[in-house]
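Readers outside the structure-tokenisation community will struggle with the description of the input data as it stands. What matters is that the chain and its backbone geometry are given together, residue for residue. For illustration, here is how one protein appears when written out as sequence plus structure tokens:

…
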Amino acid sequence: MKRHVAFDEYLVDPTERYTVGPTYLLWCHSACLSGIAFWGRLEAEHTTWLRGECGTVLHHVQLIDLRRVESMCSTAFDALTAYLCARAELPGDSVPGAALLRPHGFLGVTIAGLCKVYDFSCRVEVFTDPDDALTWLGAADASPVMQELDGLLCRVTGAGSYPFSLPRPDAWPYVN
């Protein structure tokens, strides 16, 4: 991906760009591969953009990386599930649905259970391994993309390689 842009600018033209918020990195590698990576504690104000018009614009997101999430409030959890419930497969979609990369522990088990509880409008599968998720999405040759994303996440959170520690408070705003 080429550069960091403001959220509104990303919504207009996401291809080969990324935008960063307090606990998320929203990225688009190509028309066929895009995603969201979250980290730390997700609060309601960090996920409200998943609902409404922004969520509709971001219908194409295929990979949702939650491996670095340590906790989330119930409103953030509701926003994530509402986004997945509303994310319909569009005619001509080249991907089977959305792949979730889950964290370990209690939160990971909770996220893994989403597919058993909610009636999503597209296929949603849960993974622990990024390569398995990318293969399911039909992007098996995208390991360099995950390496690039991990590098970006290390820079914006100020943390070392996965597994991440909590982001540094002084790391905001995140810029290239």
In short: The longest strand covers residues 33-42.
